[in-house]
Specification:
Layout (H helix, E strand, L loop, with lengths): L1 H24 L4 E8 L4 E4 L4 E3 L8 E6 L4 H18 L4 E7 L3 H10 L6 E4 L3 H5 L7 E5 L4 E7 L7 H9 L5
Parallel strand pairs: 4-5, 5-6
Antiparallel strand pairs: 1-8, 2-3, 2-6, 4-7, 7-8
């Protein structure tokens, strides 16, 4: 009887552990089986500077699509900021592209939550559409050759090692 109770308890904990593992696995990066060329863009940042994808050629780039009206987007911004600082030490760049909002609305948000990485504006959603970024937030990781190699749909805690290590590894010499 005692061994049956012990076995039942052990099975319960194993199932709980497996469920927790699969839940966190869903919050990782999704590899793109056949990496595709990242769609080119040139957008203005919140200071009026023109920034293009070509500016990041040869580097690993994390591209986050977001909006101020999106609660999960707002929630992940502080961790994106911490991730950007950590990744930058390893030559990885991070940018955020605001989807469909006016510059003044984005500026107001950035006054409340300053970010240490470039925030670009896509007011007509042309770039977002080409990147298939119509469900927010969505984040793509571009390798040094300009190909999308990872995607993350939904919010994440971006400073988690299980997210940062694979991104940093893309920039390591092969």
């Amino acid at each position: 009887m005692h061994s049956l109770k012990l076995l039942t308890t052990l099975l319960f904990w194993l199932m709980l552990l497996a469920a927790a593992g699969s839940a966190s696995a869903g919050r990782l990066l999704t590899p793109i089986d056949e990496p595709i060329e990242a769609p080119a863009f040139t957008l203005q940042d919140t200071r009026g500077n023109r920034i293009s994808l070509a500016d990041y050629r040869g580097k690993v780039l994390v591209v986050n699509f977001w909006a101020t009206w999106c609660p999960p987007c707002r929630k992940e911004m502080p961790s994106l900021n911490r991730a950007a600082a950590w990744l930058n030490k390893y030559g990885v760049e991070l940018i955020a592209i605001n989807v469909g909002e006016r510059a003044d609305k984005v500026e107001k948000f950035l006054q409340e939550l300053p970010l240490d990485f470039p925030v670009l504006l896509d007011p007509d959603t042309e770039v977002s559409s080409r990147w298939d970024a119509m469900r927010l937030p969505v984040t793509y990781v571009v390798d040094p050759q300009g190909r999308i190699v990872y995607r993350a749909l939904g919010s994440r805690e971006w400073d988690a090692p299980e997210l940062l290590v694979p991104i940093r590894a893309l920039g390591l010499p092969r």
